[in-house]
């Protein structure tokens, strides 16, 4: 992983291109990408110009897409790894986009988000919201990136259709659902104990059902 000095040197040598580049967003071992001009939310159902509105509010359970302010261009020997800044993750915001920026990628990043918290979360225009770590590979790649995201610089109608109709669950709703399931499982365990008279069998059952509840909780939080 590259440190701050290595990131600045790579940017100066144009091995990594960030446009517009803000030196203040260089962290000890990463770069903080900022909220860009375009955004879309599944509730409002229209593209927003954050240069005019200045703010994107993501309601509880709502899906959104945000375009980064920076355009990224990597050479054949550099890759990136991205994630939400911890301040937004702690609030209940979850990133649904792929975490890697491939060598030779050129374009802005489209970041898909969902708010699992019980209260709205606000993103302001040009606020740092995404942490990008850069890596220098041992040798240049042979195959250049040629995926559908190459050259992207706008939120398209296809992106809009993808988000329309999506519905998530807030963290409170997930916890409430898990609480109901836990009560049902507890009652089931009591009944099994009465019928079988075996503590060990109940223990195995509870361990198995705990795993099931965990998986179900994750699926419920991310369902459409």
What coarse outline follows from CA principal-axis ratios?
Answer: globular
Radius of gyration: 22 Å
Continuous helix count: 6
Oligomer: single chain
Short description:
The chain has six helices and twelve strands.
Describe the secondary-structure layout.
Layout: H1 4-12, E1 16-19, E2 26-27, E3 30-41, E4 47-49, H2 50-53, E5 55-58, E6 63-74, E7 78-84, H3 86-91, E8 93-95, E9 100-101, E10 106-115, E11 121-124, E12 128-136, H4 157-163, H5 171-196, H6 199-222
Antiparallel strand pairs: 1-6, 2-3, 3-4, 3-6, 3-12, 5-11, 6-10, 7-9, 7-12, 8-10
Keywords, separated by commas or semicolons:
Deoxyuridine 5'-Triphosphate Nucleotidohydrolase, Chain A, 6 helices, alpha+beta, 2 domains, single chain, globular, two-stranded antiparallel sheet, ten-stranded antiparallel β-sheet, 224 residues
Q: How would you describe this structure to a colleague?
A:
The chain has helices at 4-12, 50-53, 86-91, 157-163, 171-196, 199-222; strands at residues 16-19, 26-27, 30-41, 47-49, 55-58, 63-74, 78-84, 93-95, 100-101, 106-115, 121-124, 128-136. The model is unreliable at 218-224 (pLDDT under 50). It is globular. The two termini are 35 Å apart. The strands form 2 sheets. Strands 1, 2, 3, 4, 6, 7, 8, 9, 10 and 12 form a 10-stranded antiparallel sheet that branches. Strands 5-11 form a two-stranded antiparallel sheet. It has 2 domains: 4-163, Distorted Sandwich (Deoxyuridine 5'-Triphosphate Nucleotidohydrolase, Chain A); 171-222. Helix 5 packs antiparallel against helix 6 (199-222). The chain has 224 residues and is of the alpha+beta class. The chain has 6 helices and 12 strands.
């Amino acid at each position: 992983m590259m440190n701050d000095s290595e990131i600045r040197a790579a940017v100066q040598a144009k091995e990594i291109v960030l446009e517009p580049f803000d030196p203040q967003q260089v962290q000890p071992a990463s770069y903080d990408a900022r909220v860009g001009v375009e955004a879309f939310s599944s509730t409002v159902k229209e593209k927003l110009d954050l240069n005019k509105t200045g703010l994107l509010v993501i309601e509880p359970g709502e899906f959104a897409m945000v375009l980064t302010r920076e355009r990224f261009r990597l050479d054949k020997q550099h890759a990136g790894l991205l994630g939400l800044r911890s301040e937004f993750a702690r609030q209940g915001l979850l990133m649904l986009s792929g975490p890697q920026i491939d060598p030779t990628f050129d374009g802005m990043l489209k970041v898909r988000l969902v708010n699992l918290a019980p209260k709205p979360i606000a993103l302001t225009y040009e606020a740092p919201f995404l942490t990008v770590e850069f890596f220098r590979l041992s040798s240049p790649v042979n195959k250049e990136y040629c995926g559908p995201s190459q050259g992207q610089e706008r939120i398209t109608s296809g992106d809009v259709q993808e988000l329309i109709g999506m519905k998530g669950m807030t963290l409170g709703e997930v916890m409430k659902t898990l609480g109901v399931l836990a009560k049902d499982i507890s009652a089931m365990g009591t009944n099994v104990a009465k019928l079988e008279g075996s503590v060990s069998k109940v223990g195995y059952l509870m361990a198995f059902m705990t795993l099931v509840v965990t998986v179900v909780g994750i699926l419920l939080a991310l369902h459409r």
